[in-house]
Amino acid sequence: MSKINIGGIEEEVITSEEFTLEHARDVLKDETVAVIGYGVQGRGQALNMKDNGIKCIVGEGDYNWQKAIDEGFVPGETLFPPIEAAKHGTIIQYLLNDAGQKAMWPELKPQLTEGKALYFSHGFSIVYKEQTGVIPPADIDVIMVAPKGAGRTVRDNFLAGSGINSSYAVFQDYTKKAVERTLAVGVAIGSGYLFPTTFEKEVFSDLTGERGVLMGCLAGVLEAQYNLLRKHGHSPSEAFNETVEELTQSLMPLVAQNGMDWMYANCSTTAQRGALDWKNKFRDAVAPVFDELYDRVITGKETEIVLTKGSAPNYRDELQKELDTIKNSEMWLAGAAVRALRPERRNK
Ligand SMILES: NC(=O)c1ccc[n+]([C@@H]2O[C@H](COP(=O)([O-])OP(=O)(O)OC[C@H]3O[C@@H](n4cnc5c(N)ncnc54)[C@H](O)[C@@H]3O)[C@@H](O)[C@H]2O)c1
């Protein structure tokens, strides 16, 4: 375990050098990890564990059954219907989407026999138990590893050799081996480093982050600026380049490398001066919206919507319609045109 000091605040992290893959394999040598749900997260975690030599089986329904076969899982050997996989598993990774976890819980619960571990990648089902009904038996471990990134990057970063950061937590430690089991799976799914959290802290921060800066707020402010520029007669190309393309292609990679100050330091004086003067104004303008958001998260209003909408039979069709509306908006059509003009794509 390493200690990091962030401006006087001490935190612990566990790197894959400290808790090695060899050690993870040893901890998991008598375990069968059953990944229930071959969706975005389940796929990434299952394939990484398989490549890392962990005994791992998949439980999936019709939806991604064929995909699991195409990617190397064998029906009756390493691929089963969800409840059958849970029966065979000793660590049950519950990776259906969060509404699906609520729906399948009454069937899954009887498979959680003494000493097994129930694993999540989100604190949702446990923390909002009044809404989900997910209350595990007392004689099992309940653990979490939550990769901090889209499920897709869990696999892509693993293949690229970089890994992804994950938080981890133990909610219930029946076997007194829950922490070892958690860290072993965390390393086996390809985490670069793991930092401790609780189920509650994970779900509150995650729901806020994705509704806020990472996705909701980001899409909203991009649209606001694009619309403003278009309203004042700027062309779609100009508005898109000035709002999105420069952000993703030029500025964010600099922030990723060395931080916001580094990005500012590498821009013109004119840009720096304006950004420094406007930063606090934007921060203060959105602060009340963030307060409202966090309050809705902790009071369960946001999860209620997720569970209601996510369990509607036509959810996927309705979702696709909403995504298509974004895709076909002028701003993102401009995006498609601008991306197609990137030299690496133009020359193909
Ligand atoms: N997607 C991400 O980027 C991401 C990131 C971090 C954590 N997580 C967490 O990982 C877990 C899995 O999320 P995901 O995005 O991979 O899920 P997903 O939407 O890809 O669904 C996973 C699987 O659930 C099954 N499923 C869906 N609805 C069902 C239902 N009603 N009954 C039975 N099966 C159903 C489908 O077969 C699908 O293969 C969630 O707890 C999520 O919060 C996801």
**What's the overall geometry?**
globular
CATH architecture descriptor of the largest domain: 3-Layer(aba) Sandwich
Distance between the termini: 47 Å
Give Rg in angstroms: 22 Å
Determine the mean pLDDT.
Answer: 96
Strands, total number: 10
CATH class of the largest domain: Alpha Beta
Low-confidence stretches: none
What would the keywords be for this entry?
348 residues, alpha/beta, Rossmann fold, N-(1-d-carboxylethyl)-l-norvaline Dehydrogenase, domain 2, 2 domains, ten-stranded mixed β-sheet, 10 strands, globular, binds nicotinamide-adenine-dinucleotide
Describe this structure in words.
- By secondary structure, this protein is of the alpha/beta class.
- The chain has two domains: 2-197, 3-Layer(aba) Sandwich (Rossmann fold); 212-346, N-(1-d-carboxylethyl)-l-norvaline Dehydrogenase, domain 2 (Orthogonal Bundle).
- The chain is 58% helix and 15% strand.
- The chain contains 18 helices and ten strands.
- The protein has helices at residues 21-27, 40-51, 62-70, 82-88, 98-108, 124-127, 129-132, 151-160, 178-188, 199-211, 216-231, 236-258, 260-265, 269-298, 301-310, 315-327, 330-340, 343-346, and strands at 2-6, 9-15, 33-36, 56-59, 79-80, 91-94, 117-120, 141-147, 164-172, 191-196.
- A ten-stranded mixed β-sheet has the order 1-2-10-9-8-7-6-3-4-5, with helices on both faces.
- Helix 5 packs across helix 15 (301-310) and helix 11 packs antiparallel against helix 12 (236-258).
- The longest helix has 30 residues, at 269-298.
- The protein is globular and about 65 Å long.
- The N and C termini lie far apart (47 Å).
- The model has no long low-confidence stretch (mean pLDDT 96).
